TrEMBL record:
It is found in: Cell outer membrane. Residues 31-70 are annotated as: Disordered. Residues 236-350 form the OmpA-like domain. Residues 34-67 have a biased composition (Low complexity). PANTHER family: LIPOPROTEIN YIAD-RELATED, STATOR ELEMENT OF FLAGELLAR MOTOR COMPLEX. Pfam families: OmpA. This is OmpA family protein. Keywords: Cell outer membrane, Membrane. It comes from the Bacteria.
Length: 350
């Protein structure tokens, strides 16, 4: 082999070696991943997953949201509760502005919603007695102890969500003012005691100056009104000059409940059957709460009955509305049954 041919072969070998080295170096670098490569990889992964998936399996659903408060989760206590409202305040504290309502609807905060509870209700504002220093922590701990001794549980100790408070009507806020406390700036403690024959809800909202307390003994609504047909109404008015009916209204309002509308229809039938008859619609309340408030409420309820009769075609000149408040009881206001009888509407011939 001559020298020129040998040198030429050596140059070719060097070039090949350099090319191999460059290619190797390029292969060691990680090129940026293009969008197309990502989509291709995802598609491949999807295909692989589909190949192993059950073709009849339903698509995965979203995770279930945590369940809210469930009354059935509260254990049933066998401990005697005593007389309503079931608890006594700790030493050094007293209740003012107390109210006891034979039937009320109260919204209780459960931590995730307001739960409307119907039943006998006790509302009060709690303050310290003279000579005692108020402590919201002392009051809260004592109430918690009493509830736990009765076999109850705390449902929540938290602030009512602002958007929930915005949905509470002005009427509800007004009716609960003495027992609800400053729920707009302070947390609420809600407790439940479940017995075999009753469920008791307790609301406490305390601040540095006092507290609101509400206790409700929940129970199913037991109607006290019974339908008196037009002929029975006429017999009573012909004999006694008046007749009493237990028309049901919304709690502390003048709104006639739908269940009492058939009774209003019978009064309209009575008036249509005797065109000469004129009636005074007299509203009465029990003695619960302020007398002036009860007077105004009885007047408003009497006007509601008159308006309902006019809406059914009765000439308004044949009717008048009068409220007598709690001034003319027909039964003992110290008993629940007596108070129910005192909450009535009377038709009086004029």
């Amino acid at each position: 082999m001559d020298i020129r041919r040998s040198k030429s072969m050596m140059r070719q070998g060097v070039i090949v070696a350099m090319a191999i080295g460059v290619l190797a170096a390029c292969n060691r670098q990680e090129p940026p991943v293009a969008a197309q490569d990502t989509e291709t990889t995802a598609a491949a992964d999807q295909a692989t997953g589909d190949a192993h998936a059950d073709p009849e399996a339903a698509p995965a659903s979203e995770p279930a949201k945590p369940a809210g408060f469930d009354l059935e989760s509260v254990p049933v206590s066998d401990r005697a509760l005593g007389a309503f409202p079931f608890i006594t305040l700790p030493d050094g504290y007293e209740a003012i502005n107390e109210q006891t309502l034979s039937l009320a609807r109260v919204p209780f905060w459960t931590g995730d919603r307001l739960e409307d509870v119907e039943g006998k209700a006790y509302l009060a504002t709690i303050q310290e007695r003279s000579g005692h220093t108020y402590s919201d922590l002392e009051l809260e701990r004592n109430i918690q102890h009493v509830v736990e001794q009765a076999g109850g549980v705390m449902v929540t100790d938290s602030a009512i969500a602002p958007e929930v408070l915005e949905g509470v009507s002005r009427d509800v806020r007004k009716n609960l003012v003495d027992g609800w406390g400053d729920v707009y700036n302070n947390p609420v403690q809600t407790y439940v005691i479940r017995n075999a024959d009753k469920t008791v809800w307790l609301h406490l909202c305390s601040d540095s100056a006092g507290a609101g307390l509400i206790i409700v003994e929940a129970r199913a609504f037991e109607p006290t009104a019974s339908l008196l047909p037009a002929d029975a109404l006429k017999r009573e008015i012909d004999t006694h000059g008046k007749v009493a009916m237990q028309v049901n209204f919304a709690v502390d309002k003048a709104d006639i409940l739908p269940g009492s509308m058939p009774q209003i229809e019978q009064v309209a039938n009575l008036l249509n059957g005797d065109p000469a008859l004129k009636l005074s619609i007299n509203g009465h309340t029990d003695a619960t709460g302020d007398a002036a408030h009860n007077q105004a409420l009885s007047e408003a309820r009497a006007r509601s009955v008159v308006a309902a009769l006019i809406a059914r075609g009765i000439d308004g000149s044949r009717l008048q509305a009068q409220g007598l408040g709690q001034s003319e009881p027909v039964a003992d206001n110290a008993t629940e049954g007596g108070r129910a009888k005192n909450r009535r509407v009377e038709l009086v011939r004029i």
